[in-house]
Fold:
Amino acid sequence: MVRSELELRNVHHSIPGIIKTIEPLEPSKLSFCLVPRKSYFLNIANLNISKPFDCSSFISGSSFVYTALKTHKTMKRILILFLAFAIASPLFAQQIQQVPLIEVEGYAERKIAPDEAVFSINLEEKAFKVPDAVNALNKKTQALSDALKKAKIRDYKLVADNYSVDVNRVYQGGTSRDDGYVARQSLRIVTSVTNEDLQKIVSAIQNSGDMSYNLNFGIAETTRKSLENALLTDALKDAEARAMLIGTTLSIRGLRVFSVTMEPNYRPQPMYSMNAKVAMAESADMLVETDNQTLTKRVYVKYTY
Structure:
């Protein structure tokens, strides 16, 4: 509450919530009263208050004006940063384009014989009830597992994945109808190419019921990872040699690396190369011929000078 006579002159709001000039004011006689929230645009001059004056109704306006001042400053800073970024981006891009660059490709490859054999088996069973379809599928899986154990096959791994049960929907004559359920599962028998029990695995699959399978040969993940660093080193050395050759031929000195980009790893497709020689039912010989696979690594290196 202020009980002194106040003179407020030349008070003008050109921007909502922002006071530009207040003069003259004596700090000893003023308890800092701000304009109320609703007074966005005011022009006050020669206002004399000669009686006790209560500022309580103006207190709420102080927080409003303070918030408006902070918001205005923050927006101003954001606008300045945005404009600076918009101006600097084209200049930076133009500067990169003006840097002299030589881009070379580095390539490396390794030919390696497949070391992994994978038997892929897809099981499918249909029934009018879900439990019946699931039980029939589980029985086939268990039969295969028992046959492999009974054959005393060494060094293998049986992996079951991609298990699903769906409605068996039949389409006929432009219409569809539900005919029970179908359960599916994928099995993989993983072993080494040099395993002498490959024919025993084939016999175990055939003796386990009505199962079709595919045999493919590939490179094991552990072997692939062990060669990754060696391939990358060879590819980088190849890129460096090409860059040095260009620099020497064109008399360019002071070549240095500007950026390096690596091509995503390429996984060679499994090789289906199996010769099954079964002249008679009692013949158990299987000749396997595999082709070498190629692992590659490609890099792109930019040099500047």
Notes: The domain at 101-112+222-304 is CATH 3.30.110 (Translation Initiation Factor IF3). The CA atoms of residues 11 and 44 lie 6 Å apart.
